[in-house]
Amino acid sequence: MTDKNELAQIGVVGLAVMGSNLARNFARNGNTVAVYNRSPEKTHALIEAHGEEGNFVPSETIEDFVASLERPRKAIIMVKAGKATDAVIDQLAEAMDDGDIIIDGGNALFTDTIRREKDVAARGKHFVGAGISGGEEGALNGPAIMPGGPKESWETLGPILESIAANVDGTPCVTHIGADGAGHFVKMVHNGIEYADMQVIGEAYQLLRYGAGMEPAEIAEVFREWNSGDLDSYLIEITAEVLAQKDPETGAPLVDIIVDAAGQKGTGRWTAINGLELGVPITGIAESVFARALSSSTAQRSAAQEGQLPAGAIKALDVDKAEFIEDVRRALYAAKLIAYSQGFDEIKAGSEEFGWDVDPRDLATIWRGGCIIRAKFLDRIRAAYDNNADLPALILDPYFKGELEDLIDPWRRVVVAATQLGLPAPVFASSLSYYDSLRAERLPAALIQGQRDFFGAHTFKRTDKPGTFHIEWSGDRSLTQTD
Ligand code: NBP
Question: What is the mean pLDDT of residues 442-464?
């Protein structure tokens, strides 16, 4: 239904797949929603196909769109992230009044959101960068929403966002994350964790397929079974679906027909870059981004495949298949646990760096529904931070430490098996190194400090007394204290 005279509670600008689905979600949940798209064809198409789902107020100019909103006006931008977002913000800020709220629901880089919030605030309006997860399906049926921006905007926006968010056990998957870029920051790390989660599932598949020699349909059954235990999650569920799927044209397993070069839109890369900038070892996420990049390095891969590189002494799998499957399940669980632990470390570091005061319990709560990494396991993460809000690392929570008791040996066996089979398992292996590094009483960092002091007089600390020291490497090798 459309009514030009009715004022809308919320507006959506940008009616490609995400924006139209979000607009339909608002309308289906009893909100009158104003809609506008730069090219009017998308607006017409939305009204024609779905106008009966609720109350829509379509406009063909940004001025009419703004005029169709009740005050304080609330407009969500769902356009291609980047320059388009800046262009639409400028148009809205021009047409809106002081106190109105502009929400960017696209996948913006959080530093852009910080900049935009300042600019829009200087123009008297409020700006909320909101991470929206769950893809097209989530936008339509209930996404997880991570709004940043001013707390007072959340007070106005909260009820309307709660009306469309996913809902788990009566709790809507949306809450105020923190000031300015906090929402887009946690959405970015969410996506980074998603990369790692997908990669470890991929590594488990690779080992079962080419290590244990199993067919995709058989592996699909294994994943179905895994989905009823600790690994119960959306990603494991859809993995079983993909592996069971036959190519409609040839009847071959679809996974064998799909080109093995993984794409990426950039949020995983941003998460890795930010981890480097903050000095947080998010090895699982970074390895996953590199694994996608390597998969897409087609020229190098085909040159290396033509028998160019020695494989060494590859050993066939010499353990019972059922035991190996269970070991792989546990290695997958362990590597996933590390990826989440590292992702939460990055959020903590970002929150401290930018003064956001992000509560990790909120994330474990809202990520349970409407987003790609939704998983039963998030309840455990919530419980871990409920027990101790200042956990030094998620894996140090007593429950997860207990789990690691059961996971560590299978995890080591799987990394050894992957190495002997000559199969890549970058996140399984690097996560184990990360884990062993954390546990290690002594790290080779002492030697690195010695090297740094040798070539660059970078000094070092001593284990036995305070102060900063240097060895006269090119002289008499005496010790001097520099402060
Ligand atoms: P796209 O990212 O494909 O963007 C297309 C939309 O942007 C169209 O409405 C287009 O209008 C509009 N647009 C462009 Br392009 N330049 C514009 C400009 N200068 N002024 C005004 N409008 C402009 O759409 P999407 O896939 O629906 O995604 C929307 C946002 O949601 C993106 O930021 C994306 O990163 C984010 N997101 C997407 C997903 C997903 O699964 N697709 C998931 C989560 C978040 P036109 O019709 O006139 O060209």
Answer: 98
